[in-house]
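In keeping with the milestone schedule agreed at the kick-off meeting, the structural modelling team has produced records for the first pair of proteins. Each record is given below as a sequence line and a structure-token line. The laboratory manager (R.T.) confirmed that both were archived under the project's standard naming scheme.
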Amino acid sequence: HRGMKWPVLVACFVGLWHVAMSLKICAFNVQSFGEAKANNKKVMGILIKVGLQLN
């Protein structure tokens, strides 16, 4: 029974590694996001592009 532990541990590690590599984390500092940036088409285009890549 001791020999069965390693394959199970390796399989769990590989499965968790696959999940971790598929995660995307994104953060924005919205304190400096005001009306001027919201009305800027270039800024909004970049934010939309980034947002679409996360979904």
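The second protein of the pair:
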Amino acid sequence: MRRPSVEGMPLSPGQLAALRLAADGYTSRQIATRLGTTEQGVHLRLKEAQTRLGARSRTHAVVIALARGVIRFDELATTQPAGRAA
């Protein structure tokens, strides 16, 4: 049985992966495709990450994760996601 997320808990590998792709500018649909899950699954992962980071939004979660070193700029892709102008 899954435990409810609490602020301060470490992020799961799935939450980290979704957060990194969100930081890269991918949409939920693009993240779902890359991770082999559904958009609903992506929303759940990002919402859980927000809770664990104490963030108010997806963008705030990315900012907090970068500031705390949970994700790093050098881990992010150097190319733009498909369908986005440079």
